[in-house]
UniProtKB/TrEMBL annotation, chains A, B:
Name of the protein described by the UniProt record: TetR/AcrR family transcriptional regulator
InterPro entries: Homeodomain-like_sf, MT1864/Rv1816-like_C, Tet_transcr_reg_TetR-rel_C_sf
Lineage top rank: taxon: Bacteria
Thylakoid among keywords: no
Length: 197, 197
């Protein structure tokens, strides 16, 4: 059984991750301040560092929740769509990825913010979440390229994820090539419909 | 003829953009400080703001130079390669893009750093540089899809650029799917060899 002190620390961690998620969602990860979080959960600023090593560790905890929701949304997009051809299932997952990024832009951006990770080790749960996401993409890819080696398939899965990520990223930006959501969907379909064709 | 004051201002602008380019190349755009730049060029901190409205304007000036070099490198990669099939020319340009990003990572990242642009208008030279870059990609794309409308071709050019950008971006990152350069090249070829096939 957890001691009272352990329980209090677990409660504080949970409150902080919820508060941080809400703030990142609204203002982005760069705007996160310990003082604001302490106000949100009603603790001293110093107490935050009894629950998390630093703000980066707290952002990584938020990223863990974001990655889980993203993975669920992507997986759900092909549930019941097993009869669709492989290319169509890739498009469904990509559109789910786009929808998640469009609806949770700041939380999604935090997943890819390099500065957060400089010098840090990637946590095991993070690697696992990425592996789960890639496993969903690997199924249709294996159907499209039945003669590829596992190494070729693995690289194709990464390439397709990165390609769709690039289309979503620049499509949602204000500057490089901002376009309406249905145009982003069209770009995804234009590229993916060529794969394995 | 320029007055002496105008000439001094032009000289200061030139010195500052060279100093800023060197610092961004080494440390990234987020690390740029007015105090350091003043030391580099031997002027007072306040004098910087007689030459540029703010540091963002200076970073945009560096981005202009970077975009020009990037465009030249991409265009050069297909000079003398007119006999290659369209897909191969797309791969050559993408590899040139990858090489530029790998050799000038901080300068290249500054081109895409959203924070730099929040609320600012995109300068005309920036839009033009992007248009020139896309024009290079449009030639092979038009050969691959002779029956597409101009709107479809334009969207395909953006989609392909964004897809290759995503592969280069995540490929060069430390965290999401870092892979050696030859693997990034392989991913680019895997995707592009499917286009129009």
């Amino acid at each position: 059984m957890a001691s009272k002190a352990e329980q209090r620390r677990a409660d504080l961690r949970e409150k902080l991750v919820v508060a941080a998620e809400s703030r990142i969602d609204r203002d982005g990860a760069v705007a996160l301040r310990a003082r604001d979080l302490a106000g949100d959960v009603g603790c001293a600023v110093g107490a935050i560092y009894t629950a998390y090593d630093d703000l980066n560790a707290l952002i990584m905890a938020v990223n863990g929740r974001t990655f889980q929701k993203l993975g669920q949304q992507v997986a759900a997009s092909v549930q019941g769509a097993e009869a669709e051809v492989a290319t169509q299932r890739l498009i469904l997952m990509s559109n789910a990825y786009l929808a998640f990024a469009a609806e949770n832009t700041n939380l999604w951006r935090a997943l890819f913010d390099l500065k957060m990770q400089a010098g840090d080790r990637v946590p095991e749960w993070y690697v696992q979440a990425l592996r789960d996401l890639f496993a969903n993409i690997a199924r249709p890819v294996a159907e499209l390229f039945p003669n590829d080696t596992p190494e070729e398939l693995d690289l194709m899965v990464r390439a397709l994820f990165s390609a769709v990520h690039g289309i979503v990223l620049l499509g949602l930006e204000q500057r490089i090539s901002a376009v309406p959501l249905d145009k982003i969907k069209q770009m995804i379909a234009q590229i993916l419909s060529q794969i394995g064709g």
